[in-house]
Amino acid sequence: MTPEEEHDNNNNKEKEEEGEKDQVDAKEQEQEEMKKRCRNGEIWDFEDDIMADSDGVLLGLDGGTTSTVCICMPCIPFSHSQLHSLPILAKAVAGCSNHNSVGEIAARETLEQVMADALSKCGSKRSSVRAVCLAVSGVNHPTDQQRILNWLRDIFPSHVRLYVRNDAVAALASGTMGKLHGCVLIAGTGTIAYAFTEDGKEARAAGAGPVLGDWGSGYGIAAQALTAVVKAHDGRGPTTMLTRSILQTLGLSSAEELIGWTYADPSWARIAALVPVVVSCAESGDEVANKILLESVQELASSVKAVVERLGLCGQDGKDSFPLVMVGGVLEANRRWDIGKEVINCLSKYFPRVLPIRPKVEPAVGAAWLAWNFFMKEYHKEICGS
To answer: Cys-Cys link to 366, which of 45, 170, 181, 222 (CB 3.0-4.6 A)?
Structure first.
């Protein structure tokens, strides 16, 4: 290497090191700003007006792409069979808390705000909290969990027990009274199948977002319908009732306008809102809409089948029973073209003893039940010394 080449190489290394240092400094500054907001932000000013701590409470959060819900319940030690009778002390609702959709700072601000709102409504402080179960979409890896746990630890006192899971776990718990056993299928704006064995093994399928093919979700169904309208207009696909119905619903006069409408704001929830139009067309006999829904059923069933077989929930012969919790607007059983029912019919061919459950409580309640279960397990370990 010539002296000139060595000099250039050293300069490049110095620039790379400076760039890496700048990135580290920027990240540290961002984290410090977050911590400062948690400690000193106006969001917790309401605690100054609460004279005394209330009895212990639990917080359960269900955070998704569309909305975030926080439930506050009392932390009462009684048997698991009585868990359903725990009263809801307060409920708060906010927007999206999926960091993949809105960014980490916005997601954390939403989560912090919704927890503060719930505690404020029931007259409790953070020092009254015994456990928090935060179940949010976008938590797909242990590093995601640890990052959020570190952030929560900056907000709550050290005695508060903290649990971070994917939002699918809260949905499962809403149908199993806080027990992590069985499978949950969520099909709303997005979709995911998540399963747990009683010894703690877990598996998931789908839930990778629209770009990576969450077909069967509300977004997937509506996106295929929009594509079918464009194809019909171009002459690349069959005519379909979807054209008139979708244009009428959106107040558009031509398929060309549909392109502008779609890309003006291609948010997942905005697209997924067209699912009722697709269902209505299918119920009226439109073959294109009907095919889209049939394919969605196959996609949803295949996700469940994948995780159930991976964990052996159905037993070696496929005949063991297991709960299947079904959550999300796509699976609602209030239509003639019942997607959820068709998914069950499809799965029953493989798993004759599948036990479908449509929860009577929302996932945020399931998250609060999880917080109670996690807390009580550790409480009993401390009492029994084991």
So the answer is: 170
| Spatial CB neighbours of 141, under 8 Å, sequence gap ≥ 6 | none
pTM above 0.70, yes or no: yes
DSSP per-residue letters across 235-275: TSS---HHHHHHHHHHT-SSHHHHHHHHHH---HHHHHTTH
The C-alpha atoms of residue 191 and residue 221 are separated, in whole angstroms, by 11
Instruction: Dump pLDDT digits (tens) for 81-125.
Output: 667 778 999 999 999 888 877 888 998 999 999 999 999 999 999
Contact in structure between 308 and 183 (CB atoms under 8 Å): yes
- Per DSSP, 86 falls in state P
Contact 218, 188 (CB under 8 A): yes
Exposed / middle / buried, residue 14 (Cβ in 10 Å: 0-12, 13-18, 19+): exposed
198 CB-contact burial (10 Å; exposed 0-12 / middle 13-18 / buried 19+): exposed
Q: How far is CA 60 from CA 72, 94, 114, 130, in A?
A: 7, 14, 11, 11
| CA 8 remoteness from chain centre | 49
CB atoms under 10 Å from CB of 135, counted, come to 28
Terminal-to-terminal C-alpha distance of the chain: 65
What lies within 8 Å, CB to CB, of 273 at 6+ separation is: 218, 222
Residue 319 is classified by DSSP as -
Nearest to 191 by CA among 343, 345, 59, 357: 343
What are the pLDDT digits (tens) for 275-332?
999 999 999 999 999 999 999 999 999 999 999 999 999 988 878 899 999 999 999 8
How far apart (Å, rounded) are the C-alpha atoms in residues 48 and 308?
A: 50
Cα(91)–Cα(75) distance, rounded to whole angstroms?
16
Burial degree of 142 (CB within 10 A; 0-12, 13-18, 19+): exposed
Q: Let me know: does 221 contact 292? Beta carbons within 8 Å.
A: yes
Partners of residue 326 on adjacent β-strands? 185
- Number of Cβ within a 10 Å radius of residue 37: 18
